[in-house]
């Protein structure tokens, strides 16, 4: 299971939105996945939240290994600094090449991943 979802579901993007959470909510709704998610979770929480590892892990009965790259291109371009959130174009260079990120941008990318997952 990709760890990306584990912490990015809570992260705000550069404009203050939870882009990744809303994107995956659309997937759950469009595909009608609610019926395939663990019932123990969907009875207690919004089915959309049961799609994310924070809730799904409790239902996994086999060994589980989480993996995540530091910052892959997709993660930055789509969830943390999507073009739709970069109204002034400050993230264009960083979004395409992490070596072009400013110190402030790197700090944002390495931000606190604490999430009171609700």
From TrEMBL:
The function of this protein is: Hydrolyzes acetyl esters in homogalacturonan regions of pectin. In type I primary cell wall, galacturonic acid residues of pectin can be acetylated at the O-2 and O-3 positions. Decreasing the degree of acetylation of pectin gels in vitro alters their physical properties.
Q: Tell me, which GO biological process terms does this entry list?
A: cell wall organization
Keywords of the record: Cell wall, Cell wall biogenesis/degradation, Hydrolase, Secreted
Q: Which GO terms describe its cellular component?
A: plant-type cell wall
Is Hydrolase among the key words of this record?
Answer: yes
Q: Which PANTHER family match?
A: NOTUM-RELATED (PTHR21562), PECTIN ACETYLESTERASE (PTHR21562:SF47)
Q: Which protein are we looking at?
A: Pectin acetylesterase
| Coiled-coil portions | none
Pfam families xrefs: PAE
What Enzyme Commission number(s) does the record list for this chain?
3.1.1.-
Task: Give the similarity note.
Answer: Belongs to the pectinacetylesterase family.
Record organism: Dovyalis caffra
One example GO MF annotation: pectin acetylesterase activity
- Where is the protein situated, by its record's location annotation? Secreted, Cell wall
- Top EC class per UniProt? hydrolase
